[in-house]
What we know:
Largest sheet of chain B: 6 strands, mixed
Strand order of the largest sheet of chain B: 6-7-8-3-9-10
Oligomer: heterodimer
Shape of chain B: globular
Number of strands of chain A: 0
Largest interface: A-B, 15 and 23 residues
Mean pLDDT of chain A: 94
CATH topology of chain B: Rossmann fold
Amino acid sequence: MNWIERLGSRCIYVLERLGNQFAFIFRIGFWIFKPPFLFGEIIKQAHFIGVRSLAVIILTGAFTGMVLGMQGFYTLSKFGAIGFLGSAVSLSIIKELGPVLSALMVTGRAGSAIAAEIGIMRISEQLDALDTMALHPIKYIVVPKVIAALLCIPLLTAIFDVVGIIGGYVTGVELLGASGGSFVSSMETTVQWEDVHEGLIKSISFSVIISAVCCFEGFYTDIYSGQGAEGVGHATTTAVVISSVMILIWDYFITSVLI
Amino acid sequence: MIEILNLRKNFLEQEVLKGVNLKIPDKKVTAIVGRSGCGKTVLLKHIIGLIKPESGQVLVDGDDISRINGSRLNQVKNKFGMLFQGAALLDSMTVFENVAFPLEEKTKLSKAEIKERVQTELKNVGIVGMDAKYPSQLSGGMKKRVGLARALIMQPEIILFDEPTTGLDPIMKKAIHKLIHDTQRRINCTAVVVSHDIPDVFEITDYVVMLHNGVIVEEGDADAFQNSANPSVQQFLKGEIEGPISV
């Protein structure tokens, strides 16, 4: 096989995979509105994706806010603009760092687990077993995870935002001595509802990326990642890498539209 | 009636099924035998519509399962129960939840009725007092029994068994074979057993089919099959290394 054939075969593989990914999202969209609505399973998944990600989100948010407060304090002090510290910290977190870092943290903690769980179900024929019972695996396994991600990731982002701003306040005001009144008032005057909406829209779109990519990688473990434990391991890694890269790429495009 | 017509299936460059033609008799136990990796499980998965063929047809009571979808496909699948090689129990659910799952999702039975049906089915397969255990806490034989209870809970017309005795000790093999035989007689269903468990599988089968090189090379009732003049069949039955089947 010469290099042209190899390139062609690689292109066909990528296009086929992309096509299957979009078809998978379309199928999720179809099943998400079809009863029965599995509320019990959605709550269970919301607990896994949301509640159990809370600690990592709070920790990440706090330290991100604290380092932003510190960097912001020393940078703004060079221009005599410490009064804008509240604006700098809150806008950075609400519009950018909150949605992106929350999504990356959830990808690492819950997205990888989702891909591994569905991958194991695939290789142990549990998904086939559902299919033979005329119970569609996308409806019963994938859709509850997607709905839970859509509900939880924006909420986790909101928590990240609040904790991050408090972290920035603690470092900038309590540790380094910026004015607390200026911090809060600059935040009040510059942060608009549009900024909050921007963060919300981003976090919702990231939820779709994480849940769709991680579920897809698990669901097609046998086709795209291989058999057995090695296949599941590969699917999990691929899910995290593709989700993370997609989040960062999509962030650029959606920011350029929303800004 | 299940009828397979000129079924072909490739995986990448490998042609696994090269034109399988087969009629599976109703209300009998049919065994599909053949060497490991010859495509028995692939054929079984075509029968229930888990794999789509490159060409050919799988007719289940006249419906080509590879070309129907939606509610029609679900209606055909509802005729089936399947016991997978590893039982394929949902590992996040207990024994009771696994067996009750199809009833909960597909019927409007009350909780009490579901409990009664599940207990009866578990008792039929010899599982008592294991309701709260998870699949990871069960032995291989127990998993198969629970898998069979789940396959039977919707009272299917056709049951497919994918290597039901693989990995079990000789006593448990006999027990599972007896269970398959008794179950088929009790509910008078069509049973298809994929196996290379020779000669034990002949004790429970009415009809035997041998798959080799992607085609059916021999078929007949259990006695006629064992006395076949086909050298491939005789080599397979005797487990000889030398013969038309290359190792």
